[in-house]
Amino acid sequence: MKAAVIRGPGRISIEDVPRPHARDGEAVVKVQACGVCGTDVHILAGEFPAPYPCIPGHEAVGIIEEVGNGVRGLKEGDAVAIDPAVTCNSCYFCMQNKQNHCENWNAIGGSLPGAYAELVAVPASNLYPNPLADPVTGVLVEPLACVLYGHERARMSIGESVLIFGAGPVGLLHLQVARRAGASVVDVVDLNPARLELARTLGARECVTARDGSVAEHLRSREPRGYDLVIDATGSPRALKTALTLVKNSGKLLMFGVCAQADRLEISPFDVYRRDLTILGSFSIRRTFLAALRMIDGGQLELSLLVGERLPLADLPRALDMLAAGKSDRKLAIVP
After folding, report:
1. Gap between the Cα atoms of 189 and 297, Å rounded
2. Residue 238: which of 214, 217, 218, 264 has the closest Cα?
3. 203-245 pLDDT, tens digit each
4. CATH class (in words) of the domain with range 2-130+303-334
5. What CATH code is assigned to 145-281?
């Protein structure tokens, strides 16, 4: 079968690889679509821990083609969405329901072969029925599950003000979730005017172009005391530096975007102490995949506006370049 293989930093190609077969407790899924994610860009650049060679791709939906022994409740032909986080469910952290810190953690599209391929083998426990009429929209289920976990971490209260750095697909999911969770206002910052226009369509109050050197000054004119919750969905240390200055006293900064491992951010410990700030990380998913599917199936979110080009597997290298260069306004989907 055809699959994308990363053999080292900057080295990706479409290759013929052996077809996977379902082992006990697994199913083989024929991939209908897989979203292109910033994490894939980091893996290709050598900035994210993944073994080489690897087949990336972790935001996927498809149709079950083969079912292994011991699998119940699933059959060939079922439409499914794939939770890429593979955990042992028996280690110290799993036993505390903190599976995203599993001491034996694996990820489809990272340490395990992923879905930039015609077929992918998946533990049956990581498969969920996909109710979406347009299966390609399902590439947003995994990002939404991550966003929901981030909001669980942030514990936003009804009526709070929210500022989001980044109006890509993930930032726009944060925008929609924050509004439905009861935020009084949601403002958005991005470099791309087209993305900001989409944020405005989805209910953002203020949409500020990050190239404007007076971003912080303008936002303080709207929220003089700062924001209750500031979310970074860019993974940019520069954006984080500005974001921290816009957190209200006793407010929260959610570091959601993936920075490179070598990135550093200078923070004043006294400022954190004196202003009573909370700085939060948010890694992967913690049992939020089903909640994401239920929100989507219940019509709570506008997803069709977030999906852009649908590209063949051969175009994955170009899609990763586009994402790295910020040339895509919406989620790119690979359709093998």
Report:
1. 29
2. 264
3. 999 999 987 568 888 899 999 999 999 999 999 999 999 999 9
4. alpha beta
5. 3.40.50.720
